[in-house]
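Data deposition worksheet. Section B asks for the primary sequence of the deposited chain exactly as it was used as input, without tags or linkers unless they were present during the calculation. Section C holds the resulting structure in token form. Section D is free text for depositor observations; keep each observation to a single sentence. Incomplete worksheets are returned to the depositor.
Section A, Depositor: J.P.
Section B:
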Amino acid sequence: SAFLETDLPKLQALGRESRKPVFMWTYTLPSERSVEILNEAGYPLFIGAPGCARTMRVLADYRALRERCLQPISDTVVPRPPPAKFRAELLAAPPVLCEWHARPLLARYGIGVERLPGELVSSAADAEMAARNLGRPAALKVQSADIPHKTEAGAVALNISADGAANAYERVLASATKHAPQARIDGVLVQPMAPPGREVILGITRDATWGPLLMAGIGGVLVEALGDVALAPVPLDRAAATALLARLKGAAVLGPYRGAPGGDIDALIDVIVRLSQLAADHADDIAEIDLNPVLVHEKRHGVSIVDALIVKQPRAPQRRAAE
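Section C:
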């Protein structure tokens, strides 16, 4: 402490002149007077190197995030439908749009147009016919705004052949009815199975302060277990979308590993930019969008949006004019 007493003016001058944060670390327990002197000089004091290193890492991450947020959004060419027409379609839709109803609206912004949406059927015979027309293994998914999480309801059947489509139709429909007896069911969607890929979740959520936020996460249907997600205000340009993905702890799985080629990051970024623009354009009308899972295929093979959900923002009831 005697040494610090002598150098207190120097420490204060260093704190004023330095453009970088200065930390103090001691490997022994400091005296109370030493702590007082360093506090007076404006220096944080650490008694462990790991805590000091973690603090520096958090400060560096915050600085990088702040600089990205302060950068102006660059112009990104995104196909944007006439706002009034899109809003009219959205307002005419039900409060919750399952995949069959959500895909046409997403396609207006060029999202999910790379794969055929499939065919909505209402009988086992039609399911078999639709599966035969695909000529490849099919996925059967019950379509209902009242069953947003179909897997938990047993309302999904995967890798179904044409011969097994009728039985699969009856099975998923029975499971959905058992899970939610009062659910309004639009039908069963018969789709071609998507090629394998790395699972990602993309979505839009609302924050009371920040408004619409784009969410990206690793794991798709396992995202709740992994907890690896990142958020950013909309809209995002390609640079901001790239930075968002880099914040994910598991971002490395999107690149080449264990002999597998890297994923089509460019296609994933394109979806992020388009989704963020949709959310920014219609922030007052959309409460939530969920694209889960999104399969990222190898480079130059794009992505597949396996499921989609849109939840509209509740509108305050209009008061009737006084008579």
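Section D:
The mean pLDDT is 88.
The longest strand covers residues 286-296.
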